[in-house]
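ok here's Class I SAM-dependent methyltransferase, seq below lol
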Amino acid sequence: MSELPTPDDAACAHSRRVARHIRDEIARAGGWISFARYMELALYAPGLGYYAAGSVKLGREGDFVTAPEISSLFGRTLARQVAQILERCGGAVLELGAGSGRLAQDLLTELEALGRLPEAYLILEVSPDLRRRQETVLARLSAPLRARLRWLEALPPRFRGVVIGNEVLDALPVHVVAWRGQRLFERGVAVEGDAFVWRERALAHPALRRAASAIPVPDGYVSEISLAAPALVRTLGTTLEQGVLLFIDYGFPAAEYYHPQRATGTLVCHYRHRVHDDPFLWPGLQDITAHVDYTAAARAAREAGLEVLGFASQAWFLVNCGLTDLLAAVPAQDAARYLPLAAEAQKLVSPAEMGELFKVLAVGRGVSAPLLGFACGDRSHTLD
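and the structure came out like this:
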């Protein structure tokens, strides 16, 4: 890991506190915890975890950049899909984990321009630090738009409208499973000295065992299974009276996720815009993520009585929703404005950037297809 920048003394001290907290948890559990529990503590332990403490996470000074940080074109284009859904069912917008607040800012501004503002713009944010940052960014909105904003502590019991999860499912804890001969093992975390190490145990978790047993992979395969992401989709599905859930994240259908050539899984860590594969390095200072199994998410939606309304690459979705029209509205002769915007659009749709790896899944109730974002390039058939 010599290529990674070294944290400063204060950050290292914070990471040691996080590590001590996790070691104490492992000791209380008898010397072993699942990786899902380790990931949950490293990311969300109150006042300590990566998303619960005060480090800068997004943008140039953070660890990674999301699409809304790259360009306002992302939120403005997404707004056209949101507007179509609101026209059909009315209601509010609920954003899960609003990051820096940039997406909410761009969405509300564009929805106002389109004449299709939601009844309210709700934000469910588990990170106190990120909520403060969102409040600062969204304070720039006009008073009428700010009046529609409301932060939630929990999901509402009933909801009508559009739920947006941009890079949410990938940040939920995952279990790590190893297929060894005819036996299944769960990879968890133990302590050697002061260091965290991988330790395998026979897989005992009933739901996890059922999920792992249904995945056909070669001997020696190691990968992640998320129980939390499908659970969230099912919960949202029972909450949704009418409307659409939109998930935007990097991931694959199950046939690609558990492809024989992807034999070591998808788990990655982000630190200062570097990507590496050691989740035990500097706990509390780095993001830990796994790609999304979109087949599992779609299955969970159907179990909750929702219909799959579309599944496409981010590139197809944004083009369908009018990204090129927004870009064309800026004269190419105005190079100072057009060239930076064109470069941003390229990052959003290029297969070498976010265009192909990121997917968009739409599931809903009481809203008929087709949706604007899936007019071309719909791959819903790959989720079966």
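fwiw The radius of gyration is 21 Å. kinda neat tbh
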